[in-house]
Structure formats: C-alpha cells, structure tokens
Amino acid sequence: MYESRVLPRRSLLAHIAKVAAVIIAIALFLEVFVFNMNFYKSLGYNSIDLSDSLELQETSDEQYKITEVDNVIEFSNLNTEVHNVYLKFDWEQPAQNLTFKIQFTDDAHATYFDTTEYTLGVPEVDISTMVSESQYVNLNTTGYVKNLRIELVGNEKTNYPVRLTSLVLNAHRPFSFNFLRFFGVIGILAFTYLFRPGSSVYRVSIVRRPKLSKGGIICAVAIEVVLISSFLFMGSNLVGVATSTYNFGSWDGHSIANSFEVGGENAQQYAELAKSMSQGKLYLEEEPPDWLQQMDDPYDKGARDELQKETGEPYLFDVAYYQGHYYVYFGVIPVLLFYLPFYLATGASFPTAIGVLLAVIAFILGCSALLDRFARYHFKQVSLGLYLLLQIALVTCCGILYLVKFPTFYSLPIACGLAFSVWGLYLWMCGRGSQRPCGWYLAGSLCMALVAGCRPQLVLLSFLAFPLFWRRYITERRLFTRRGAQEFACLIAPYVVVAAGIMLYNNARFGSLTDFGANYNLTVNDMTKRGMNVGRLAPALFTYFLQPPCVTGVFPFLQPTPFETTYMGQTIKEVTFGGVLACLPVLWVLPFAPRILKLRISQRSTRTIMGVILVLIAAGVIVALLDAEMAGILQRYYADFSFMLLAAAVLLVFIVNENLVPGSTISQVFTKVLLVLVAVSVLYSALICFVPETGWYSDVYSWAYSSFFETVLFWT
User: Fold this and answer.
1) Which of 501, 506, 550, 703 suits a disulfide with 128, CB 3.0-4.6 Å?
2) Rounded to whole angstroms, how far apart are CA atoms 551 and 151?
3) Residue 201 clears pLDDT 70, i.e. is over it
4) What is the CA radius of gyration of the chain?
5) What per-residue string of b and e applies to 676-700 under the rule 16 or more CB within 10 Å gives b?
6) Which residues contact 581 (CB under 8 A, 6 or more apart)?
7) How far apart are CA 521 and CA 502, in angstroms?
8) CA distance 518 to 500
9) Tell me, what's the pLDDT at 6?
C-alpha cells in the first residue's frame, strides 16, 4: 500500500518542488542580473551634477522651476561622454507625466539633429514626476557630447510650474527589485514549462483521470480569476469603490468600503434607473431641457449641439429620449440583478465595475464548465493539456479582457449576456444527460431567455437548441410523448415568461411590445433614420474579421488600426485593433471546418456536434454584421461574436484530436502548432489590455502607467 500510493506522490511532489525551485531561480537570476542591467552598466560612469549650472528660477527650498515660458535647459561645451541624463523631480508636487525633447551634438553631429525625410531624430521621452525609474534617460551618443538641450514639451494637461530638484549626467542607476516583474516572469516560465510539447499534462486524460483533471482545471480557473480581478482593480480608474488604502481620496472616512460615482453623468444610467424604479417609474428622474422637448427632430445631433450652445442647457447623451422623458435603452436585467437591490439595501449606487467583474467571473466559470462538459461527454481523447490550452484561448481571446479594461455600463450588459449564455448552455447539456431533465431545462432556458434583457444580439445562441434537442424530440418523436412534452414545455416556458416581462416593460415605456428604445437614442447619429444599408457590410466584414493588426516596435506593440471606406455615408467607428481571423491564429482552423465536419460525420451517426459548430459560426458572422448595421464598429462589440467563433474552433480542434494517434509524430506536430497558435492569440489579446486609450488608466493616471511601462522596458 505504501509503495503503491505514497511513494509515487512523494516522487511527484519532489519533482514539482524541483521544477518550482528551478523556475524561481531563473526568474531571480533574470531580475537581479538582466533586468537590472542599467545598474551594472552605470557603476563605472563618471557622474556630473549640473544642478548648479541650471539657468532656471530657484525656489526657497533650493529647487528649480520649469515654467511655460522658461522650459528649456541647455548646456554648452560639455566635452564629455554622456551615457544618461537623470532629471530628479520633487515628488511632493502634483503627479504628472511630462514629455521632454532631448537633443545633443557629439563627434558625429556638429549641430542638433532632428527627424528628416530619411532619418529619425532623438524621440521624445515621457518622464513621470512620481516614478523614479522613468527619470533616468539613456542616451546613445557618439564620442564626446559638446552641447546638450532639454526642452519640456508642454500641453494643455501640463501643470506648471514643474519643480526640478537636480540634473545629473552619467548618473548611477539604483538597483531595483521589481516584484511585479519577478512574479510575472515566474508565471511565464511556469506556463511555458507546463505546456511544452513533451509535458505530461498532455498524457492526463480528462475522461480516465477525472479527479486529477478537475483539480487542474480548478487551479487554472482560480489563477484566471485572480489575474483578471487584479487587472480590474489595479488597472482601471473606473472601479468606483474606495477604502482607507484604495481610492482613499473618495473614501467616506468610516466605512470598510464605500462606492462612489465615476465616469460622469452618462455613466450613471443604470444607477438612476434603479432610483426611478424604486419610486415606481420607468424613466429617469432628470427632466430634459425645454429646448429638447420643443425640437421637431431631437435625434439630429448637429441641431441638438447648436441649441445646447445657444441656451447653455446640457442634455443627457446616449440615452433614449421619448415623449419628454429620458429612458435607458440598454438591457434591464443588470438593473434588476445589481443596481435595484443594492440601492434598496444601501441607498447608494452600485459600482458598475464590480458588476462587470462578477459577470466576467461567472462567464469564466460557466465557460470552463461548458467546455469540460463537451470534452468529457462527446470526445474520448481530450487531455488536460489540450483542454487547458483551448480553455485559456477561449476565455482570453473572446473579448472579455477588453470589457474589464473598460468596466463601464456599456460593458456590463455584454458581460452579463455572455455569462447567462454559457451557463444556460451548460445547464442544457446537463439536462441532456439526466434522467430527470426538467429542472436543468428550466434553469438553462431561464438563463438563455434572460440574455434578451442583457444583450439581445446574443439571443442567437439560443438557436443551439436545434442541434442539441432536435434528435431527441423531433427525430425520435419524444416530443409526442407525455413525458417528452413536459420536458419540452420546461424548455419553452422560461422564454415565454421572460419574453412577456420584457414586452410589457417595452410597452409601458414606448407603447410597443418589441421596441427596446434603441432607435430613440440621443447619440452621434439619428438612429430613427439609420435603417439597414448593405454598403456598411463590406467595411464591417473587413474590420471585424480580416484587418491585420497595426504593430510597432515599442511596448505594448499594438496600435489602433487605420480605417478607410468607400461607403459614402456616416460610419460609426471607434478604435479597433484588427480583425479576429487575422489576429487570432487559433481561429485559423475555421476555414477547414467543412473537411473536419465530414470526418466527424463519417465516424458518428449523430449530427449534434456538427450542428453546434455550424450554428456557432453562422451566429458569429450574423451578430457581427448586425452590430455594424445597428450600431457601428467598436472594439467592445468583438465580445458579441468572438466567443461563438472561438467555441466553434475549439470543437473543431477536439474533432481533429480524436483522429490522431496519441504519441504519434503527427500528434506531436499538432500539439506544437496548436501551442504556437494559442500563444500568439493570447499574447495579442493581452497586449490590447495595455494599449493607451482615452479614458483608460493610462490617460487618467499617465504618471502611474509609466511605472508599468518602465517595468517592461527595463533597458531604457
């Protein structure tokens, strides 16, 4: 007994401990000797303190003021090697990011040089007054530097005067142990080791080793939840929660935690609707200005803006306006789920970002459970390694990371719709394998029906009911039995109840059972006249599916993609970062779907998996085109359809894997190729999270974002 059970576990634990020790040692070596290369390089520098030579106005505490007028520092006849410049700022002044233009003359340049048609001059550099690492700027000079010029390039956000403490050439860089980078490297190394082609994780069958595989899945999901939660709390300025140590500027001074409003008036729609509902009203309490109520066409943005300028009275943007009242046209379920109960219990507004996080966590859990269900009950050869690879790709690349990047009320209904969808499908799948499916069907259909009250586009996932239940209730004619009719009624009843509730809600607001109010939206275009136009489809297809990413050589490497169109009308377009087929290589299996499905058909008498894949692909394309027609081309809309395409790709990969001999050469090649495709897809999706954007953390707290920037670009 001891030899058969205890010894193998001791050996396994010893192996894990050895691997962990090696990974930690490598990460420690990299942090100490590689990532601190500037510390070792600067040890032999001859430091020159030029603070006394600064021709700037001094303050009473022996500091120097850079003003809007006096913003240039220049030194002549230095005649020395210059490896870096250290600009030390007073850390007690208001935190901000400052842009500096540095120029010099050296043995290769008798005059200051700048960008020309064929060359690029010294690029401008951002320096944070609060991040000391950014205040050291390495220079690549030739020989001796004679003249040096440093100019603060101000803008409307620059807070003058800027207090400079000292300026040093060839400064000795301090040693810095960055724990975020250290643990990040440990994570990357562990991921690389775990999913290397020869890893034993590919030999653990999730069917034959259920306990071990479930343990691995739970660990992976827990890590994903922790990472995504950490990113939301530390990487967003829109959380809306304050404690004595977190967002303490908005802390009420006595609660353990309190919520506060973020994002401006437009971001409070759900919270304001909850207040109105508590008083028995379905419209927002705020009264529209008289000029808006008197307009012949209040949905003409140009006319609205002109009248707003004339009267000085603002109006609410991006809300539905109908017969003298403001309404919220976004799905009502998030209000009933989060905002109304929270308001009734506390009298405060529910923090939207927490709702987004809860919905995203629910999606991750449901998505993992659904994928596990398909893998265990429809395929025999899925290994733990293959499952985890595809689960990571499915969760990371489906667009939810971008929803977490901007956890606003725009993201909340999408995240809720996705969460309800995956749990509804999972409950349906459980019902299909149960002897008493009615309870499963009721719960599953309730989730699927509630999607209509979150993100109506995602209701197309309900069409998966056809491949999932057609054979049982139509082909086998179970529907025409008493028990089958009861089960089918359980599938339909929640849809009827939820649809009735939503239609009554619509009718009470807009006098129509099917009018959600989107056409009455006070947005950048007149939605009442937008209609459907085939000319919008080609730009949408290219942008959403085929456009390659725009890549640079500087972290985070991605930039917004350019957009051009021959559609001679108004196009609603926000920043996007490339099409899913071009940027997510894990989807490159989709073009081979016909051949793979033929293989599945030749081996199975049932067509369930084939039907699921076809519905997912069709729904993904249709939703993308509907989004473009009804609203426009926006990055957050990728979450509406990416999950569908990724889920189809995952099932196709499962089919291919079923037809490979474990351990064979082709199986090993398949694993290596899939690993590369997943890694590139995940990397792309993760990098989008760190692209600086208007309204994000990098824009609002640019000085703090600089700290992360310096963590990655350790050599600068």
Assistant:
1) 703
2) 29
3) yes
4) 29
5) ebbbebbebbebbbbbebeebbbee
6) 545, 546, 587, 588, 590
7) 19
8) 19
9) 54
d(C-alpha 67, C-alpha 160), whole Å:
6
Residue 550: CB atoms within 10 A of its CB come to 14
Question: How much is the mean pLDDT over the chain?
Answer: 92
pLDDT tens by residue, 392-431: 999 999 999 999 999 999 999 999 999 999 999 999 999 9
Place of tokens 């040093």: 168
* DSSP for 589-607, written as a single string: GGGGHHHHHHHHHHH-S--
Report the candidate in 610, 614, 544 with the shortest Cα–Cα distance to residue 583.
544
d(CA 29, CA 186): 11
Q: Which residue has the tokens 């395409």?
A: 645
pLDDT at 657: 94
Q: How many angstroms from the chain centroid is the CA of residue 463? A: 27
Cα distances (Å, whole numbers) of residue 146 to 106, 124, 149, 402, 562: 6, 20, 10, 48, 42
DSSP single-letter state for residue 327: E
Q: Which candidate, 557, 533, 556, 547, places its Cα nearest to that of 635?
A: 547
Q: What are phi and psi of 150, to 5 degrees?
A: -125, 120
Read off the DSSP letter of residue 562.
P
DSSP conformational letter for 288: P
Q: Is the peptide bond before 161 cis (omega within 30 degrees of 0)?
A: yes
The reported pLDDT for the residue numbered 267 is 86
Tokens of 392: 């990571």
**What H or E segment, with its residue span, contains residue 14?**
helix 7-29
Please identify which residue in the block is written with the tokens 């899913």. Answer: 580
CA dist., res. 670 & res. 592, Å (int): 15
Contacts with 612 (C-beta within 8 Å, 6 or more apart), sequence order: 464, 467, 468, 648, 651
Distance CA 423, CA 421 (A): 6
* Cβ partners under 8 Å of residue 262, min gap 6: 237, 238, 239, 240, 353
pLDDT surpasses 60 at 439: yes
The answer to whether the beta carbons of residues 430 and 373 sit under 8 Å apart is yes
Q: Is residue 672 pLDDT above 70, yes or no?
A: yes
SS3 279: coil
pTM over 0.70: yes
- Ramachandran bin of 93, using left for φ above 0, alpha for ψ from -120 to 50, beta for the remaining angles: beta
Query: pLDDT tens digits, residue range 302-351?
Result: 889 899 999 989 898 889 999 999 999 999 999 999 999 999 999 999 99
Sign of torsion over alpha carbons 291, 296, 302, 306: negative
DSSP 8-state class, residue 142: -
- Helix/strand/coil percentages in the chain, nearest 5: 55, 10, 35
pLDDT band at 642 (very low <50, low <70, confident <90, very high): very high
d(CA 521, CA 623): 20
Q: Are 611 and 470 in contact (CB under 8 A)?
A: yes
Q: Is the peptide bond before 556 cis (omega within 30 degrees of 0)?
A: yes
- pLDDT score recorded for residue 530: 76
pLDDT for 265 equals: 74
pLDDT at 5: 57
Q: How many CA atoms lie within 13 A of 618 on its CB side?
A: 11
